[in-house]
Amino acid sequence: MNKHQEQHLRNSDFITDTVIGLSDGLTVPFALAAGLSGAVASNGIILTAGIAEIVAGSIAMGLGGYLAGKTEIEHYDSELKREYDEVEAVPEKEKEEIREIFAGYGLSVDSQKQIVEELAKDKDQWVDFMMKFELGLERPSLNRARNSALTIGGAYVVGGFVPLLGYFFTDLPMQGLMVSSVLTIICLFVFGYFKSRATGQPPIQGAFKVLIVGVIAAAAAFLVARFLNSAV
Amino acid sequence: MNKHQEQHLRNSDFITDTVIGLSDGLTVPFALAAGLSGAVASNGIILTAGIAEIVAGSIAMGLGGYLAGKTEIEHYDSELKREYDEVEAVPEKEKEEIREIFAGYGLSVDSQKQIVEELAKDKDQWVDFMMKFELGLERPSLNRARNSALTIGGAYVVGGFVPLLGYFFTDLPMQGLMVSSVLTIICLFVFGYFKSRATGQPPIQGAFKVLIVGVIAAAAAFLVARFLNSAV
């Protein structure tokens, strides 16, 4: 097991996917609600729009992510088939490609030849090696893609409801915006912190990045919607 | 140059980023507008919400993508420093890790030793090798991250305006939804086709995937918003 895998295993995939979905789910619904707060008269419209966005965004993210994962597996399988065909059809060319990889790291011609001859003894390990070291591909897992899509999509829904909460318990859009901003800014920071930790970044710095994206998106949406509304 | 890089160079990064931004930009604004069409009485609110979403989504995608790219570079640099430190502090352990990689591909003990000794002669090439083949990391480019963020964010804005067009030129939300659906479905298919070609997937199949995500997200948002509206 290499260090990268160790690092990866320390964080459960489920927790990583959950904080990614939560922190991303906060951003766009928050900005949309903020934008509408500067332009409409009733909290009901903001809630409807916010919920429609959460439904749309979670499906786009979850289903889109799942289908992208399936595509990646198909891509891996077609590259795998191509490598098997090439190892069969043009073995000398494939051997030359392996020698070039090691030549690039300053290995002697003798070593290059020896590596290639030993690898080529077993077609499966030869192709495995080409997939990983020439093409940089590792076999993706369909289970993982499905679980990840469901977790991220579900967490996006939960995260998206945080900015909407402020509009449930207030009467006017600008009051809703005040409550929503306080709640969302706290959550963006907290989930940004855990998102960064889960993905191996410096957590405080990462928390500020997530917060900044959310606040800039919300401020821009608010200003544009208010401008449009006063112009019409 | 390996096959993967060749494949990559055939498509300009700019075109790839543009079609990704366009096809993603169509999806959520389309679904949001569809959702609101089942719940509000005026096209003005749909346009305001749609534009607020486009502003929010493009900033979240563009700025978020740029900051993620910067984080990736910091991560690479910190791993690079760690590898240099480890090669200095525990060279035997690092050599063992390389031998294990090649043992996994069935190479003889002699070859493993020979590779390691030759690699370890030059510290830079040793660390380069560890970064790529042990950790699977390649140095990301900041320029590329910035250009990509700007292109995807900009294309998201352009893509997002397609579903809104229908509401500009009609009087009632349901009329807007009809025009918007026809326009967006055509564009989802066309951009999905080029997105799939640009990312090396089967284009027709990929076009249907992009189309299906967009249509399901829009239908779900429409049904949820209409249900909420009739329940309140």
Automatic annotation (TrEMBL), chains A, B:
<dbReference type="GO" id="GO:0012505">
    <property type="term" value="C:endomembrane system"/>
</dbReference>
<keyword id="KW-0812">Transmembrane</keyword>
<dbReference type="GO" id="GO:0030026">
    <property type="term" value="P:intracellular manganese ion homeostasis"/>
</dbReference>
<keyword id="KW-1133">Transmembrane helix</keyword>
<keyword id="KW-0472">Membrane</keyword>
<dbReference type="Pfam" id="PF01988">
    <property type="entry name" value="VIT1"/>
</dbReference>
<dbReference type="InterPro" id="IPR008217">
    <property type="entry name" value="Ccc1_fam"/>
</dbReference>
<feature type="transmembrane region" description="Helical">
    <location>
        <begin position="149"/>
        <end position="169"/>
    </location>
</feature>
<feature type="transmembrane region" description="Helical">
    <location>
        <begin position="206"/>
        <end position="228"/>
    </location>
</feature>
<protein>
    <submittedName>
        <fullName>Iron transporter</fullName>
    </submittedName>
</protein>
<feature type="transmembrane region" description="Helical">
    <location>
        <begin position="175"/>
        <end position="194"/>
    </location>
</feature>
<dbReference type="GO" id="GO:0005384">
    <property type="term" value="F:manganese ion transmembrane transporter activity"/>
</dbReference>
